[in-house]
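Re: [ENG-882] Designed sequences occasionally contain unexpected residues at chain ends

Forwarding the minimal case from QA. Structure tokens:
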């Protein structure tokens, strides 16, 4: 019997937006996954202060995935706290599944700056989707490692969606509409809790 294949989509999700959800959907559909787990980071070490707390970001993700078969949310990184490193997360997961780490092409460009990136690449299959302004191409050190492992990047076929959490936060701080970028339940949650009214540091 083959082992379950579980997709993992990490990030700040500050806030979760339509491109995050579409990426998870397309990965589930095209990579033959049994499910996709969204993993909000406690404190991403490569970015500044977050605009929403860990529990708030978890709640927004739960609002979005409620009606999405095959998608779920894990509080693992939030509960662990401190700076979030992907390698720590992978080491904490059960060993009874094959994991596929899902990322955008913009993250792929920086992949070799991640803590123990080579160990991450050995532990999981990497699956990447297009992002505006980024190439679907592994950095040279990563490509060399993948070649030595006899592996290749999995490509998630989806159009590059020009939506980012940064742009959403900026629009909200300026009082501009973001309706097409957010799930309606997330938009209502943000409004109800008064989130992102001021630009993040």
């Amino acid at each position: 019997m083959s082992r379950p294949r579980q997709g993992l989509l990490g990030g700040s999700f500050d806030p979760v937006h339509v491109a995050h959800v579409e990426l998870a959907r397309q990965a589930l559909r095209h990579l033959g996954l049994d499910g996709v787990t969204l993993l909000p980071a406690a404190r991403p070490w490569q970015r500044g202060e977050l605009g929403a707390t860990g529990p708030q970001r978890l709640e927004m993700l739960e609002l979005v995935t409620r009606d999405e078969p095959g998608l779920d949310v894990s509080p693992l990184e939030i509960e662990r706290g401190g700076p979030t490193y992907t390698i720590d997360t992978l080491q904490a997961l059960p060993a009874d599944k094959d994991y596929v780490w899902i990322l955008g092409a913009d993250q792929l460009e920086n992949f070799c700056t991640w803590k123990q990136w080579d160990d991450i690449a050995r532990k999981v299959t990497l699956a990447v989707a297009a992002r505006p302004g980024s190439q679907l191409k592994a950095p040279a050190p990563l490509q060399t490692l993948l070649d030595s492992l006899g592996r290749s990047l999995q490509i998630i076929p989806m159009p590059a969606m020009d939506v980012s959490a940064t742009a959403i936060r900026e629009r909200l701080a300026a009082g501009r509409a973001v309706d097409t970028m957010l799930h309606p339940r997330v938009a209502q949650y943000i409004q109800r809790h008064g989130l992102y009214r001021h630009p993040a540091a």
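QA comment: On inspection the terminal residues look reasonable. The mean pLDDT is 92. Proposing we downgrade this to a documentation issue.
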